[in-house]
Amino acid sequence: DQQVKQNSPSLSVQEGRISILNCDYTNSMFDYFLWYKKYPAEGPTFLISISSIKDKNEDGRFTVFLNKSAKHLSLHIVPSQPGDSAVYFCAASARNTDKLIFGTGTRLQVFP
Amino acid sequence: GAGVSQTPSNKVTEKGKYVELRCDPISGHTALYWYRQSLGQGPEFLIYFQGTGAADDSGLPNDRFFAVRPEGSVSTLKIQRTERGDSAVYLCASSLDRGPVTEAFFGQGTRLTVV
Asked: Is the predicted pLDDT of residue B43 greater than 90, yes or no?
């Protein structure tokens, strides 16, 4: 049972445009959500997070939106840069737990 | 280095053998996590340590897997009687305090291949 789903395995975007990565979840107990970025042969790197009490969190070019009623979150990158090319993982955790449940990842390619 | 260090970076072993994977967390981080990432999947939680104790080992797939953190710093993940299905990248992460609210820093992983 995949509790965190990233239905798009890959996304290709032109440099300067907006990249939108989507994530859906099924567990209504999740109350904290994170996005990680992963380059080949490296471990995931924390990018941005959002608590369930918010619907938006912004950090520079990165913005995460949370729609609790739809159990959906998205990561917006604008403007996209070639260095953003990586695999992006959505992750979630439930209150009073210490583990992250990850999605399967979306491979983003930003081309010139 | 200042980051989470995992050794070895690659390990090839024969089916049925015993392996140990090591994780050196960031100095001062009390929380330590092990995850496993199979091909085409996201990281899957295995075990979480707070200090020396395993606070949550619900992700360990079976009793062939065991992890220790005797002094609250370095951790070793041990796999007995390895099977081909154990082949994956094993990721270690550490954070300053418990819970994912405090971001966890991941190591580069150990790629385990069981032949």
From this structure: yes
- SS3 state of residue B86: helix
Instruction: Give every strand in the sheet of B5-7, ordered side by side.
Output: B5-7, B19-24, B75-79, B65-68
Q: In the beta sheet, which residues pair with residue B94?
A: B32, B105
What token pair was written down for A79?
């403007």
d(CA A68, CA A74): 12
Best of B35, B46, B95, B98 to disrupt the A interface (most A CBs within 10 Å) is B35
Taking alpha carbons only, the member of B67, B88, B82, B87 closest to residue B23 is B67
pLDDT for B1 beyond 60: no
| Helix/strand/coil (H/E/C) assignment for every residue in chain A | CCCEECCCCEEEEECCCCEEEEEEECCCCEEEEEEEEECCCCCCEEEEEEECCCCEEEECCEEEEEECCCCEEEEEECCCCHHHCEEEEEEEEECCCCCCEECCCEEEEEEC
> Which positions 9-48 of B are in contact with A (Cβ < 8 Å)?
31, 33, 35, 40-45, 48
> In 10 A of CB B96, how many CB atoms?
13
Rounded to the nearest 10 degrees, how much is the dihedral formed by the CA atoms of A64, B100, B64, B89?
Answer: 40
Beta-bridge partner residues of A20: A76
Q: Give pLDDT, residue A107.
A: 98
Q: Residue A109: beta bridge partners?
A: A12
**Does the beta-carbon distance from A104 to B40 stay under 8 Å?**
yes
For residue A108, the model assigns a pLDDT of 98
